[in-house]
Amino acid sequence: MFLGHAITAQQLYGQLLVGLINGSFYALLSLGLAVIFGMLNIVNFAHGALYMVGAFVAYFLLHGLGLNYWWALIGSPLIVGALGALIERTLLYRLRGLDPLYGLLLTFGLALVIQRLFQNYFGASGLPYDIPPGLSGPPRNLGFMYLPNYRAWVIVFSAAVCFSTWFLIEKTKLGAYLRAATENPTLVRAFGVNVPRMITLTYGFGVALAALAGVLAAPINQVRPGMGADIIAVVFAVVVIGGMGSILGSIVTGFVLGMVEGLTKVFYPEASNTVIFVIMAIVLLIKPAGLFGRVA
Amino acid sequence: MREPASAAAEPLLAVAGLQAWYGESHILHGVDFDVRQGEVVTLLGRNGAGKTTTLKAIMGIVAKRKGSAKIAGGETIGLSSDRIARLGVAICPEERGVFASLNVRENLMLPPKIAREGGLTLERIFTLFPNLAERLNSGGGKLSGGEQQMLAIARILRTGARFLMLDEPTEGLAPVIIQQIGRTIAELKREGFTILLVEQNFRFASTVADRYFVMEHGRVIDAFADSQLSANMEKLHEYLGV
Amino acid sequence: MSANPVAATMNPFTREGREFGVVFVIMLVLIGAAPFVAYPFFVMQALCFALFACAFNLLIGYVGLLSFGHAMFLGSASYVCAHAAKVWGLDPELAILTGVACSGLLGLVAGVLSIRSQGIYFAMITVALSQMIYFFCVEAPFTHGEDGIQGVPQGRAFGLIDLSRPAALYVFTAAIFLFGFLAVYRAVNSPFGEILKAIRENEPRAISLGYRVARYKLAAFVLSAALAGLAGATKAIVVQNASLTDVGFAMSGEVVLMTLLGGMGTLYGPVVGALVVVSMQNYLAQFGQWVTVIQGAVFVACVLTFRRGVVGEIGKALKWSI
């Protein structure tokens, strides 16, 4: 068929599944970046590092406190989210009102520090994290492919979280405050809303989403200090392709690009590393603001 | 300059020596005036006189301010805008500030209640502004100028704020809507709201105002009561360059 | 400031000209004296990084574009130059030119893709593009992946000067650095530079005045890429190898740190910053893995409290524009 080897349905669906899983992570991470960018107008370079920290916290919760995966799913985002709120309140806060590039620089420096610290303590190789008991066991036979339970869970749960976040932002009163403060923070504050606190909590929330992705990734990708750095460039490309103007756009772009990456692995494996970047280049030529982006 | 005072001894708003900056630009050079409880006061002046900046300075949303702005006797220079809002102050800005990413209902319900009793009920608001009731699900960006103005006024009425600052509420609106706004302000005045108005259209202002302060180059240069309006017409024309 | 700033800085009789001249002479003296006080090899590396930082600073300091992937220009030129010298047997100056041409071309492509995007997106795009280049360098046969290109010959510059002699190599490197430094200086203090400044301060106004803003930005981007390539290619000759480190993300981060620490938007800032960072790496080498942590911490501290950088603070204190 292609490139001299026949591709079985098993291979195809298998890679699509991997693609969907990666797409789940891309969607969760670019969603977090979009939420942070909307309110704070900075790109959180520390996002990859905090995703990694999320995975490590899950590891510590298990091996240190004996709290299993299900506790980690809630605990890790809460802990890392609190850490994020602290970072915003003590560091990023001082840069409000300055050129947003300083925010980039600061989060970049933070990413360096965090990643290096973890690498120094834990080395470059990964720590194992087992698939939680409820989701391990033999894969389901769907006829056209085998579907591992844990992987199915990751996709479904990620989609649910993404959809819930979208719903929260677009359809609830809390989301209305977020959208209004993104549009005109001064006026919202003049109505009596504590906007600075909203900003802090928004950063915490965006970062919590990254940590959640980290927990989901832990049983699949293992827990490595470099896992954030490995994924951040692709996530940036996803964000540029989608544009940060639309929550739904970020989510959809993440999932779709993950699948495109998976498909590329099947038909043209050498390009799978770079296909998303190539798509980014094409999108930049046609629509620099991104597929769903608003022209500022 | 002052008419015999109404019952309240202490003005609701007392501004003295107020200075304000936008970035490096020094806009207000020492503004002095006061607004008594239940009054409607209008700031008049040409474009660039500093009227909008005065409202913003009182609300606390300028870059920097100095001097004194006391609300109900308490100094507010140094307070953040959300704390000033919770004293019972609300602003309806010149650009209206209707949030395009929210629909009309969300816009209306957004400002939180800052007084326990709350403000006007939704029923009451829809009586004053029937058009809004029809447009609840429309996106904020899709409203006409008149609808936006009504929404901007309506949403601060819900909060329970009793001191309202309206910046050019009739700008660019059709006469019919201007009349509606005039009726609304008169109605609010009857209910005891205190209103500080900025208006270019002093004919409109004269239908509701009790007192006028004229501003030029960031200062108050003249003041008179409504009863003295016709006597001061010529001076006014000169000030406003009309 | 005098009415014609271009003429002013070139004129030794104006204040700006004097300030620049004084510092430049100091720098010349330091470069001349350096090999007698420190290891020449170390100084040459520092000079290469200083040039790299100057190239980067042209973009952030004078155009306002933060490129987080500048290593792609340094590294690609480094590889191409190494290959040209070792496999094609070109003379060092020709190998370097080949490297520069490559990075300049890459700069053109990257620039066309990214220049239309605003600051935040621009930074992300540079990260993505440089990651793509990194992957390419990992896979491409001529780069030899993890091993890199070793044993790059230093050859004879212009067919005459034997660069394996330390003194000759040093003068060669210093000359290239000074050329690059002066190129940045000339670009900034020229009508071109004035337009860039206008764009940075008020882009919509520049557009309304009729300037093809995208073209100026692109030109600055290509120049920055070419100069970074010059630094990379020269480095390949000096250290006699090209490796993945040169195109890696850490390298991109380091040049940002150097420029921030030294002073963004100042002429001498990147030079000072490069010197500090390279020295830091040498003298802190005993701390091994902690060097990066310290660097990151210094970075964060600079962004919070020391945004003008060393040269920026000195310049402010003396009221000199350097």
Helices and strands, with pairings:
The complex is a heterotrimer of chains A (296), B (242) and C (322).
Chain A: H1 9-40, H2 47-65, H3 69-90, H4 100-122, E1 140-141, E2 146-147, H5 149-171, H6 173-183, H7 185-190, H8 195-221, H9 227-242, H10 247-267, H11 275-286
Antiparallel strand pairs in A: 1-2
Helix pairs in contact in A: 1-5, 1-8, 1-9, 1-10, 2-3, 2-4, 2-8, 2-9, 3-8, 5-6, 9-10, 9-11
Chain B: E1 13-22, E2 25-35, E3 40-45, H1 51-59, E4 64-71, E5 74-75, H2 81-85, E6 89-92, H3 104-109, H4 122-128, H5 130-134, H6 145-157, E7 163-167, H7 175-190, E8 194-198, H8 202-208, E9 211-216, E10 219-225, H9 233-240
Parallel strand pairs in B: 3-8, 3-9, 6-7, 7-8
Antiparallel strand pairs in B: 1-2, 1-4, 4-5, 9-10
Chain C: H1 5-10, H2 15-37, H3 40-62, H4 71-86, H5 92-114, H6 119-139, E1 156-157, E2 161-162, H7 166-188, H8 191-201, H9 203-208, H10 213-239, H11 249-262, H12 269-283, H13 290-305, H14 309-318
Antiparallel strand pairs in C: 1-2
Helix pairs in contact in C: 3-7, 3-10, 3-11, 3-12, 4-5, 4-10, 5-10, 7-10, 8-10, 11-12, 11-13, 11-14
Q: How would you classify the quaternary structure?
A: heterotrimer
Order of H and E elements of chain B:
EEEHEEHEHHHHEHEHEEH
Strand content of chain B: 25-35%
The CATH class assignment of chain C is: Mainly Alpha
* Chain-averaged pLDDT of chain B: 88
Strand fraction band of chain C? under 5%
Count up the helices of chain C: 14
**How widely separated are the two ends of chain C?**
14 Å
- Describe the global form of chain C: globular
Number of helices of chain B: 9
Radius of gyration of chain C: 19 Å
Return the structural class of chain C.
Answer: mainly alpha
Q: Please give the order of strands in the largest beta sheet of chain B.
A: 6-7-8-3-9-10
Regions with little confidence, pLDDT below 50 for 5+ residues of chain B: 1-7
- In total, the number of domains of chain C comes to 1
Q: Helix fraction of chain B?
A: 25-40%
